[in-house]
Amino acid sequence: MTKHPAPDLRDELVTASRILFMKDILDGFGHVSARDPEFPDTFLISRNIAPGLVTHADFMRLDFNGIDVEDSGHRPFLERFIHASIYRQRPDVNAIVHSHTPSVLPFSISKRKSLEPVMHMSGFLSGEVPVYEVRDHGHVGCDMLIRNSDMGDELARSLGDEAVILMRGHGMTVVAPDVRLAVFRAVYTEVNARVQAMALTMGEYTALTSEEALAADETNSAQNQRTWSLWETQVQNEVTR
Amino acid sequence: MTKHPAPDLRDELVTASRILFMKDILDGFGHVSARDPEFPDTFLISRNIAPGLVTHADFMRLDFNGIDVEDSGHRPFLERFIHASIYRQRPDVNAIVHSHTPSVLPFSISKRKSLEPVMHMSGFLSGEVPVYEVRDHGHVGCDMLIRNSDMGDELARSLGDEAVILMRGHGMTVVAPDVRLAVFRAVYTEVNARVQAMALTMGEYTALTSEEALAADETNSAQNQRTWSLWETQVQNEVTR
Amino acid sequence: MTKHPAPDLRDELVTASRILFMKDILDGFGHVSARDPEFPDTFLISRNIAPGLVTHADFMRLDFNGIDVEDSGHRPFLERFIHASIYRQRPDVNAIVHSHTPSVLPFSISKRKSLEPVMHMSGFLSGEVPVYEVRDHGHVGCDMLIRNSDMGDELARSLGDEAVILMRGHGMTVVAPDVRLAVFRAVYTEVNARVQAMALTMGEYTALTSEEALAADETNSAQNQRTWSLWETQVQNEVTR
Amino acid sequence: MTKHPAPDLRDELVTASRILFMKDILDGFGHVSARDPEFPDTFLISRNIAPGLVTHADFMRLDFNGIDVEDSGHRPFLERFIHASIYRQRPDVNAIVHSHTPSVLPFSISKRKSLEPVMHMSGFLSGEVPVYEVRDHGHVGCDMLIRNSDMGDELARSLGDEAVILMRGHGMTVVAPDVRLAVFRAVYTEVNARVQAMALTMGEYTALTSEEALAADETNSAQNQRTWSLWETQVQNEVTR
Predict the structure, then answer these.
(1) Alpha-carbon gap: D226 to the closest alpha carbon of chain C (Å)
(2) How far, in Å, CA of D169 to CA of C216, rounded?
(3) Best exposed site among B124, C110, C133, D125 by fewest CB in 10 Å?
(4) Which long-range contacts (CB under 8 A, 24 or more apart) does B111-116 make?
């Protein structure tokens, strides 16, 4: 027991997975992970399974090369390098969500418009959310997945200091200081995308300034428990998915 | 007991909260309040909690400075000043909904189109629904929230005699003579926004004239019990959220 | 008992009401009626209640002047004249749905595009679905409702021989030879509106020719039992709404 | 018993039908079939019933002329020739989904844009998904259905070697080497259509290259069990539809 991380973090990741599935951020694909506070050069992530089905027993602990440090025997996600590289390059990040959310995807492929914060709930978004274009990194004709540490490192560098990065024709990756805030940011990235897309069909609009975004993010981060309590109650009240 | 407002108003606010959550007007954020008929210079509003989780015990009574007159010990909403200022300036208003409804938000940021009534159910909307732009009131780089009485008063003045005001990049505030009508108006503001946005993608359209809007509003206000009965039944039949 | 219509028609209208509510064609408003086969100059329609709550006991029998011929004591719908006038002018019509369906409403207000059949399931739609503009009939500044026989007759004449008519800023009215087909047509009018609106955002498209529409309608009318069985099972399995 | 196909394939088709109904790919109409591995010149398909209601006992075995080889007495689908002709012309195909999915339909009628793969989950789509235009095959003023072997053969030839074909004003047909992959492809064709349509409202976008699509398809086909497990669990947990 002494070597294992606190069990409640795995439970929190189960709840996070089910919330993200309930909110249509994740479908049968995508994953959420957390840095292990006891062994901070490793992180917890489920085996290769749909997030809506994940349980406490499905988690494994990986190092920053994507190696299963406890030899769990579980089959890992192909894209574990998204998580590994970001945890290595961003000591401030303790939780990561990767998803293929349909309403966010158009902003990953558009040549005309970047995703940007248009409402105060999504002040964590930067003025122009960066997009990782796999072709720009020499991967021509690839399957779009982040399959190894080199690609993970490219993605992490493209992310820089931001909270969210889009991946062209693939999805998004959201990072945060803790699991609850990562879930919050993933949910409101999706809401922002819908609001911005609808506003775009009407013509020009006013986005948040970077000052407004920063101030709103600071306020909302402190209100995060309100949504977590709600969403946790909702998924617990659903006996099954 | 003699000093407390009739308990049924708190129950009505619980039902209202759950209806607005069921209809996606409120999510984890937003709030609904009612003027206390016994102490009309105070109003009832829940403590800082998600509307989908609110119960009878969560309500507190605030005065128009946002002070908890019964020292309940509850933590209030940061934005209680929205309610306080409007109740002070609008004696005809006895119920208020504040929300971040995604399909309404685009109209709060659009430079091209105002929300306006395009269907008879939303005749309570004015020809061009006003938008509170926080920057126009000297709040530069703020977190967008209505955090004090000064900002609440600005919002109330911008609302004027209307039933609905949008807040740029933030949400909407809906007022009515009673809780049931406030819920009705919040719901149909959202429907109107979707209908208008869809019509906008097709080009020019015909809105209601102010005469049509006024006449339709008068009729619909008298039909309000029909929707309340339905929605109340729906939320009561859901054992849990 | 001898004077009463067959009870199964009232049950069928209850099922129809609940299907249309489940499919978001009706919300708290709107109504479905059926001509009484025993007294074909009268029709069955519920009292003024939300369709999602209607039961067998809520129905009343009205004549073509909108008079309650059995003095049920029920409060009728203001817009019963929609039904009364159409049954009088269209002996082929035995069931009518009136609704405020949000995805259909944009076509009632657009100056640019008419609703038209773009998929074979909605072959019952005419090439350009007619729109009743209340202003064109001298009703200026009215509440948009069909409140009397004169307005009902105007609507019925505007409908002509069609299956569907839109009402500007108000909703739609759908007619059919029987209740099940009226439900079918109301559902697929809504689907057609969504498909056509989405196609419009892409530019020009191909609609059905009137010959295709006619042929498809004839085929689909004979397949109507398939959807009715499904939808009836769905609403019966929901213990409550 | 010796002449019957393995019972588990019929069970798999029941699960597939219910998944496709849950995911709104099928509504009251549409069908999913599988080639009988024991008698590969026949296929299993349900009788004329809504997919959401189908059970093990509803299946029949048809040959490539659409004839019920076991004289089940069931009433077959009018459009069984879609399946019969494709199984005859495509020995690699062992499962077929035909549907009227609303978000895919706009791409079947648009004169401006073809459906194409814009996200890695839908790499099975060809660069420009073919559209079967019934008029181009001399069927003028018809009811749009694939009613006989000649029309089935036209559709199969238009499909060529692709995984998906659209049918103008009618729907889509999706083929795959097995039932689970056919379900997967139908689901992600729908997601791709929504993503592409939303991107189109923003202007130009980047689609997958054919090399990317091919590589992504190969990867995703091997991940197919993950979604099937999820969706199977979801439909099994719903006691009734």
Answers:
(1) 28
(2) 11
(3) C133
(4) B111/A203, B111/A204, B111/A205, B111/A206, B112/A202, B112/A203, B112/A204, B112/A205, B113/A202, B113/A203, B113/B196, B113/B200, B115/B164, B115/B166, B115/B189, B115/B192, B115/B193, B115/B196, B116/B196, B116/B207, B116/B208
- The ipTM (two decimal places) reads 0.95
Four-point Cα dihedral B12, B17, B19, B24, nearest 10: 160
Instruction: Tell me the pLDDT tens digit for each residue of A6-20.
Output: 558 999 999 999 999
Q: Return the structure tokens found at C156.
A: 């019925």
- Cβ(B53)–Cβ(B46) under 8 Å? no
CB pair distance less than 8 Å for C119 and D145: no
Kindly tell me the burial class for residue A102, based on how many C-beta atoms sit within 10 Å of its own C-beta (0-12, 13-18, 19 or more).
buried
Tell which of C185, C202, C219, C239 to mutate to test the D interface (max D CBs under 10 Å).
C202
Q: Beta A164-167 vs A59-63: how paired, if at all?
A: unpaired
Residues of D with Cβ-Cβ distance to C227 under 8 angstroms: 27-29, 50
Residue type, B144: M
What gap in Å lies between CA B37 and CA B174, rounded to an integer? Answer: 19
The counts of H helices and E strands in chain A are 7, 7
Contact at CB, B119 and C103, closer than 8 angstroms: no
| Domain at B9-226: CATH architecture | 3-Layer(aba) Sandwich (3.40)
| pLDDT tier at A193, thresholds 50, 70, 90 | very high
Radius of gyration of chain A (CA): 17
Instruction: List the domain boundaries for chain D.
Output: 9-226
Cβ separation of D29 and C215 shorter than 8 Å?
no
Dist. CA B114–CA B110, nearest whole Å: 7
- Which of C199, C230, C231 has its CB closest to that of D109? C199
CB contact under 8 A, C113 and B212: no
Other Cβ atoms within 10 Å of B96 Cβ, number: 25
Q: How far is B6 from chain A (nearest CA, A)?
A: 28
CA–CA dist B14, B45 (Å, integer): 10
How far, in Å, CA of C216 to CA of D52, rounded? 23
CA dist list (Å): C125 to B88, C34, C160, C181, C217: 53, 20, 13, 13, 9
With residue C32 as reference, give the H or E element that holds it.
Answer: strand C31-35
Which residues in B lie closer than 8 A to residue C75 (C-beta atoms)? none
The model's pLDDT over D142-195, given as tens digits with 9 standing for 90+, comes to 999 999 999 999 999 999 999 999 999 999 999 999 999 999 999 999 999 999
Q: Taking the model in full, what pTM does it have?
A: 0.96
The partner residue sitting opposite A52, judged by closest CB among D207, D214, D230, is D230
